[in-house]
Amino acid sequence: MKILKTTLFVLSLVSVGFAQNVKKVEAKIEKVTVFLQQAQMEKSVNTSLVAGVTKLLVDDIANNIDGNSILVEGKGDFTLLAVKYSPNHLNNKINVLQDSIQKVQADIENLEMLFAVAQNEEKMIMANANVKSEKDGLLPEDLKEMIDFFRVKLTEVGARRLQIQRQMQPLKDKKIRLEKQLAEVRNNALPLGQIELTVSASKATPANIKLSYVAYNAGWSPNYDLRVKDVKSPVAIAYKASVYQNTGIDWKDVKLSLSTSNPSVSGQKMELNPQFLSFYVPPVVYQRNVKVAKMEDGVAMAAPMAMADMEVASKTVSVVETSMSVNFDLGNTYSIPTGGQPEAVEIQTYSAEADYKSVITPKIDLNAFLVAELKNWEKYKLLSGEANVYFENKFIGKTYLNEQSVDNKLKLSLGRDTRIIGKREEIENFKTRKTIGSNIRESFGYNISVRNTKSETIKVVLEDQVSVSQDSDIEVNVEDLQGGVLEANTGKVTWEFDLPASQNKEFSLKYTVKYPKDKRINNL
Question: How is residue 460 annotated by DSSP?
Answer without folding.
Answer: E
